Amino acid sequence: MTHKTAAFAAMAKSIIKNLEKRNMEGYYFETGAECVKAITSSIPEGSVIGWGGSETIKEIGLMDAIHNECYELIDRSLAKTPEEARQIYAKTVLSDYYLMSSNAVTIDGELINIDGNGNRVACLIHGPSHVIIVVGMNKIVTDVESGIARVRNMASPPNAIRLNKDIPCAVSGHCHDCLSPNCFCNQIVVTRRSGHTGRIKVYLVGEELGY
Question: Over 80: is that where the pLDDT of 69 sits?
Answer without folding.
Answer: no
